[in-house]
Amino acid sequence: MSDNEKVRTSGEVVREQTLPTVNPASEKQDAPKAAFHPAVYVSVWITLSSSVILFNKYLLDYANFRYPIILTTWHLTFATIMTQLLARFTTVLDGRKSVKMTGRVYLRAIVPIGLMFSLSLICGNMTYLYLSVAFIQMLKATTPVAVLLATWGMGMAPVNYKTLGNVSIIVLGVVIASFGEIKFVMIGFLFQLGGIVFEATRLVMVQRLLSSAEYKMDPMVSLYYFAPICAVMNGAVALFLEFPRVTMEQVYGVGIWILLANAMCAFLLNVSVVFLIGKTSSLVMTLCGVLKDILLVAASMMLWNTPVTALQFFGYSIALIGLVYYKLGGDKIREQVGQANRVWAEYGNNHPAQRKFVIFGAAALIFFLFIGSMAPSYAPESVERVKGVLGGATPGN
């Protein structure tokens, strides 16, 4: 997948960017200001990205606010307001000043990309009405495949059958996982498929736009340009399909503060990506993305009793292995594994007791996560008692 991909509002892809260098004196002055360890940025990104997905699922399904287009419009409207405020009162969006944006470029580039962005968000949120978070994450593993095919289809790269063979592993794993899905709903599957296709098309169009140095944009600057037109497009669709049905009683039933927190969470996800760029390598981001998906599957099982079969686990494992191999390549994986083994051996020689503690802790964590994920299937009564104490959600998808 290209490094020039951007982040959608729901937060699924991170794009790395090489920032322009400044004079050496400035770099030396800024060096001591290194803020947090990269692990902090990664943790915040994983937390916010997972929270947005779980939050949207809760609102659209369990809170019975079944208006995905209105929710998407609200997110984009909130993002428009916040980016306008940040542009006027902070320096976060100063990068927009280097973008040579004209009315012609906006109509010919930003608007078509915004259309794809809107359609991908609408389809993605519609999916939450029909499918579980666990199954949605499994289907999203095919996004790199769709991006690759879109790249070939739009003439951005020549067809490579070896690469196609590599990504076919991802498709095979997702197909196996789909056959193992108990609550398979075709309309939800088609919405998710449409969302992936629109997102892949958007990412390739963005790659084409960013191929010119004049239009290099970080995620916040791109949100500054895309959010207004996407909010208008989504609002126009919602005006005919959902606004005639929604009532203020339903809005108040969910809670104004809940909706505000939901929009803020989605917006902060984009902010976290800006601070994350350049802090970690592509290897770390790939593995963290896989970890986030696995955690979301586990969270869906524990929060909402989502049934996940052994066949799905098997298929999803194949898809994740294929995803990591496709993004990093065999040579990169072997190099990193060798380096990790050397670092681990050196750590063991210097801190033998601490290494044993880490091994024991990791084993205990994996054991409890496994037992916890199996609880909805084998001990539903205990799960319900815990949920009653914690105020958990009603069982559903």
TrEMBL record:
Question: Where does the record place it?
Answer: Endoplasmic reticulum membrane
Highest taxon in the source lineage:
Eukaryota
**Segments of skewed composition (Basic and acidic residues):** 1-15
The UniProt transmembrane annotation reads 34-55, 67-93, 105-122, 128-151, 163-180, 186-210, 222-243, 255-277, 284-304, 310-328, 357-379
What sequence ranges are listed for the domain Sugar phosphate transporter?
A: 39-326
Question: Ribosomal protein among the record's keywords?
Answer: no
Keywords in alphabetical order:
Endoplasmic reticulum, Membrane, Transmembrane, Transmembrane helix
Which topology term describes how it sits in the membrane? Answer: Multi-pass membrane protein
Provide one Gene Ontology cellular component.
Answer: endoplasmic reticulum membrane
What are the start and end residues of every segment in region (Disordered)?
A: 1-26
Return the PANTHER family for the record: SOLUTE CARRIER FAMILY 35 (PTHR11132)
Q: What does this protein do?
A: Involved in the import of GDP-mannose from the cytoplasm into the Golgi lumen.
Q: Which protein family is named in the record?
A: Belongs to the TPT transporter family. SLC35D subfamily.
- Fill in the subunit field for this protein: Homooligomer.
* Protein name per Swiss-Prot or TrEMBL: Sugar phosphate/phosphate translocator
Q: Which organism is it from?
A: Penicillium angulare
